[in-house]
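Hey all, quick one. A colleague (J.T.) asked me to put the calcium ion job into the tracker so the inputs and the structure tokens live in one place instead of scattered across chat threads. No bug as far as I know, just bookkeeping. Sequence used:
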Amino acid sequence: AQGDLKRPDTLKFEAVAHSTADTMTVAAGYKAEMILPLGTPLNSGIEDWKDNREQSAESFEWRMGDNHDGMWFFGKNGNAYDAKASENSLLVMNHEYVNSSELSPFGYYVTQDNDAAPIFQNRRLASDVRREVNCHGVSVVELTRRADDMGYEMVPDSKYNRRITSSTTAQLAGPVAGSALVKTKFDPTGYQTRGINNNCGAGLSPWGTYLTTEENFLGVFARGQDASQLSAGDNYARERYGAVEDFPGWEYLWHTPEAKDAKIADEFSRWDMTAVGASAAEDYRYGFNTFGYITEIDPFDQNSIPQKRTALGRFAHENCAYAPVEQGKPVVFYMGDDARGEYIYKFVSKAMWSNSDIGGGLKAGDKYLNDGTLYVAVFNEDGSGEWKALVHGQNGLDAFNSVLPFNGQDEVLVFARAAADAAGATKMDRPEWVSVSPMTGDVYVTLTNNKYRGVRDDQPVSASNPRSYQSSGKALGNDNGHIIRWAEAGGDHAATSFEWDIYLFGAPSDLSAENLSQLNDNNDFSSPDGLYFDPRGVLWIQTDDGAYTDTSSCMLLAALPGKVSDGSMTTTSAGQSTRVGTSASNDNIKRFFVGPEGCEVTGITMAPDFKTLFINIQHPGNTWGAVAGGSIPRSATVMITREDGDVILAESFDTA
Ligand code: FEO
Ligand code: CA
Ligand code: CA
Ligand code: CA
């Protein structure tokens, strides 16, 4: 049935209705099955998940972690990466964070082991923290085609099955490696750190490795009172990343377990960035600086060390998408920093692409990802845009900068947010996933929502972030989010200027003042997050929504976008001028799947034969994913196939 598939003009499946049921709904003719939920053993010898919140911390070195997020299907041919192989694969997946109350007997804040009457003293058990540390990171799972040829199943005990956690040793690679800013008691030379953390969206490299991302690493760190021991610049830089003095971290409190000896003290004090020693080599004041990177993993080499690619900057990385590669041209990666009012970046490699590097593993990564130029985006009011280089000595990034002195490229990269401020970048409505259209080369980014837009003075409405929902004359921020896109000048992804428009605005269909894309019941949504162009040019949009879940739980939509020049200037109901793409119709954007209650739909990948689509259900709210007879909801992967075994969206491609 599968010929030379070209992008269709219309989507022919019947759109899925809004749903708030605690179940999955997928388009008619398709099958959605849960696989690999939290706690699934990857090897024999690890007992099955039970609802007792007592699985040992150590066992999670061989179990699926929590909060499944970005993932990628790596076709496997023998022992090697094969971008076209669909028979077997390594499914590589992020575990973004933990729901402590679903993993530990008493959740947060407990001091006493095995105690029916826990004492809440803002100090946690070592065993609970170890379990949570091991529930983060990445899983590598070998999959094989099922006997009935419909979808895949895990290969237990595969030599490839592997967990990388927040305690696995990782290498700092690129310009920041060895910098004074990443020296810690663990490695006073500044080349290694422990753990990858808060891994959110995913990326693939053109040579076939996995790119994971470190997003909300702020939440697991604490900071006491130490400003008097730090330089003004050091203090400012931490505050710019949210770590102000007396910052307790979020609810995790990984730095708090009681230490019975020095080794245990070191295991947990690394999550406390307070400067307590005489120098950085004696404490973990710079442990915080060793997180926030794009991290490269070779899933085919189970002994390989994850490489934190510092040349791509340090911020709350959402995902990482490469532009189509061309022999003899630089490799270009696009990235978003997901926080309110943060920025969109791109990295242009110094090395020129060679097709001979496919399958080159981390050595190819060393070639393309350790040296290059990081840029940040400026979106002008007239629909034009420019990329500002974050290079020491350019754009005010020098020792005389009035906000933060930059003494070298390591400081520019570790404090990329401050460098982007100095370069005059445009503050966006929470940049989440990036994906590049294989049809047009246009780059798409979800701007999920931003409650500060039009509310805080530093984030006024603008052409590129044009909505702040108004109620009773009061600005309430951008609730529903939008998807921005741009075309690089001359179609060259290394260009330093571009033209942009807004492809799509999220909105409830009955809220006319907000519904600038004329969405209807078949396709309205809020808070776009996951984003993926499949190789046939179909754009898949996932939602992580706080504004519309009373009408429908989070969802997956399929779309067939046009191109940037579709955009024309228009004016919002609040009088803001912007540039909007062609409006959505019933035929070119449709709801394909709705997840269970309380969940986020995130992470997406497809087998190369287009017959299996994988998505993740993260933090389901009720009992979805619970073991039979149990009640603890679990994040899990969902495998979607067509009931007739044909390719996903076969009805639109006329192969059915
Ligand atoms: Fe982890 Fe911005 O989503
Ligand atoms: Ca996300
Ligand atoms: Ca989100
Ligand atoms: Ca999430």
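Adding what we noticed when we looked at it: The longest strand covers residues 68-77. The CA atoms of residues 571 and 577 lie 4 Å apart.
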